[in-house]
Amino acid sequence: MKSTLFILIPFFIISCNNSSADAVHQKTPDSATAIAGKPGSSAETTVETIITDFNNDGVKDSLALQSPPVAGDPGQFSRIRLRISGLPEQSFTCADVWDYIDSSFTQPNAVASKRIYAYKHHQYTYLLLFGFLYGSGRDNFDIIRIGNGQIKKIFSQAIQEAIALQPMGSDGKLCFIGRPIAETDQDTPDSTSGATSTQSSYIVYELSDTSKIDILLTTAYNLSH
């Protein structure tokens, strides 16, 4: 009996040690995954940081413009990270690259930045992101809306030129006015490509959860400009 007891005691000690080792080994990957997956843990090159109250709750929020292109490539940044009080951190990525605000877009900016335009209207803040303007046009122009407990991209189009962001119509709804990518007129060829660019009409978009063209306001705006 005594010899049997001596045999069992070492076996019991070894078994306990193995169980402890297994518990530590299982916990470590879980902790590592949590750290690696935590927002903001990965290294990002930040081009510009803006700190202000974006959702009008009296608490400072932060916005970071990140992921600049490699040296020699066009544009300024391709990612925007938003940390708004009371909301989960959220990021948006450009399919191509965002650039400086167009020099022709001269509306007063709610933030001191040359790369992103902010406009406050009622309980919302609207952020305008200007894609790089190539010779053939701009592939990306985006509008993000902050407010009412939400951060949402409500507009993403290929826009040649941003004209204005302003309340319009009898109800004062906020609209974005832009000029689409120029079309070509095959009846009047130029000396190089056999086609000539024609100036595109203005388009008025009503900004909402499902931003869409407002036909009546578009017609009225084109008649007066």
Topology:
Layout: H1 2-37, E1 46-52, E2 61-66, E3 77-83, E4 90-98, E5 117-121, E6 124-130, E7 133-134, E8 137-138, E9 141-147, E10 150-157, E11 159-168, E12 173-180, E13 183-185, E14 196-198, E15 203-206, E16 212-213, H2 215-224
Antiparallel strand pairs: 1-2, 2-3, 3-4, 5-6, 6-9, 7-8, 9-10, 11-12, 12-15, 13-14, 15-16
Keywords: Signal
Protein name: Lipoprotein
Signal peptide: 1-21
- Average residue-wise pLDDT: 80
- Distance N terminus to C terminus? 105 Å
- Sheet with the most strands: spatial strand order: 1-2-3-4
> How large, in whole angstroms, is the Cα Rg?
28 Å
Number of domains: 1
* Helix percentage: 10-25%
Tally the beta strands. Answer: 16
Low-confidence stretches: 1-43, 184-198
Can you give keywords for this protein?
single chain, 225 residues, alpha+beta, four-stranded antiparallel sheet, 2 helices, 16 strands, disordered N terminus, Lipoprotein, signal
What does this structure look like?
This is Lipoprotein. Residues 1-21 form the signal peptide. It is a single chain. The chain is α+β, with helices and mostly antiparallel strands and 225 residues long. It has one domain. Helix content is 20%, strand content 40%. The protein contains 2 helices and 16 strands. The strands form 5 sheets. The chain has a 4-stranded antiparallel β-sheet with strand order 1-2-3-4, with no helix packed on it. The longest helix is centred in the N-terminal third of the chain and has 36 residues, at 2-37. The termini are far apart.
